[in-house]
């Protein structure tokens, strides 16, 4: 009787496993055919168009204009990431030490800005920063300047818009990480005679480093492929890699170049993701092999 | 004295934090007064207010774009929800090397930069004749939304012991009963969160839409994008104001819901 039950339950388990395999494979096959094939064919096209070989990559290494675009991308990403991390860290740090009501309000405001569409946010920045915009009006109104400052169509405008977009991506993981740091550790270090600076540098900062590393790579990943804000606030003057790819694709129709630059961007981002997975749980359930 | 120095540094960081928060929120709120300008161009209303830019929204083009966006977002959210939940439950139950690798595949659309998606789908959809079709955009948005559904449904399954299912079965429940009474209640919050995430992913998606749609499918972000390039249209401010209000209400509801869950 008991053996009987064991057999039925095992056979039904096997049958059930088949159902579960079906559940897993249906979306996987869907993605493999409609996602993976198009993405891989980008890479394939980068070495087959116009001729078979690595010509496109040689162009990337040699062409002066492309070098400028890549240099600009690295520069804007570096400045954006540094500023975002600096202010994001200070904000998360302060949030951990606030009274609960104040913390909830700040958290609400950060999340609110996080959920507002990037287009609306960029539109708002145009309204604020353009030559006849709010900021210039105010500054001229109170007599600090007498001619409008150039705040858009340059690096400054792009960096402001990008930092604005990236800040929640830094604040939220940093805050989550800092909340796990035992709040009695710093006072303990202080009680043992450490100066506030030393207590922060030797106790708090090292404990927050994994969060900091994770957040900075996350911001770097998003900024490197950023398209909307640079295109709108840069106004064609500040061209980063994503916008350059779009021009190759839709205007000059240099598909070899577009696909090879896309491949480079994708490989950089994948490498950064692998680096990030060492510091951050990319949504894993903790059952990593 | 030493604690004074400590308090000072906490105060300092608090000031920086509020300045950062103001930097985040205040520029966004600018769209609210701008939306009431009586003028044709982007400006602050000086004394006189007008609702003309709200009237523009409920007439003609904007409304049909809202319709397009809703259609695409609802279809792709439902598709992503169905496939993502299937995958998450299957992976939770099997949880072996193969499914773990497949999971990385499903998370890929979250990591690859949108401009790469644009290149990839422009190429592929032109071969499959899916450019500028609802189906083409829905498929792309479904794939982009899948990772969020997989993540949130997986998260709601983390604390569910797989033996619970066996227990339910050995106590005589059919597999359908087990599904409805054991599994589904457990994943429902994850499905809700994932579905909302999926909807917003599609509702907000612009970069792929710029490249793979033109006239037949004209989503809201695409219309805003065009509006930003031509001449900065104050109707976008009116739309932004409505979206800010909806977002704030949504977040407050979520807060309430979470509080109610805790007590």
Keywords:
heterodimer; A: 289 residues; mainly alpha; MetI-like fold; 2 domains; 12 helices; globular; B: 263 residues; 80% helix
Structural account:
The complex is a heterodimer of chains A (289) and B (263). Chain A is mainly alpha-helical. Chain A has 2 domains: 1-46; 55-276, MetI-like fold, CATH 1.10.3720.10. Helix content of chain A is 77%, strand content 0%. Chain A is globular, with a radius of gyration of 25 Å. The longest helix of chain B has 34 residues, at 61-94. Chain B is globular, with a radius of gyration of 23 Å. Chain B is an all-alpha fold and 263 residues long. In chain B, helix 4 packs across helix 7, helix 5 packs across helix 7 (134-157) and helix 8 (162-170) packs antiparallel against helix 9. The mean pLDDT of chain B is 90.
Which stretches of chain A are low in confidence, meaning pLDDT under 50 for 5 or more residues running?
1-11, 283-289
- Contiguous helical run count of chain B: 12
CATH class of the largest domain in chain A: Mainly Alpha
Rough outline of chain A: globular
- The averaged pLDDT of chain B comes out at 90
Share of residues in strands of chain A: under 5%
Which fold name fills CATH's third level, the topology of the domain at 64-242 in chain B? MetI-like fold
Radius of gyration based on Cα positions of chain B? 23 Å
What is the CATH-assigned architecture of the largest domain in chain A? Orthogonal Bundle
Q: Decide which structural class fits the backbone of chain B.
A: mainly alpha
Please give the largest β-sheet of chain B.
none
- Number of spatially distinct domains of chain A: 2
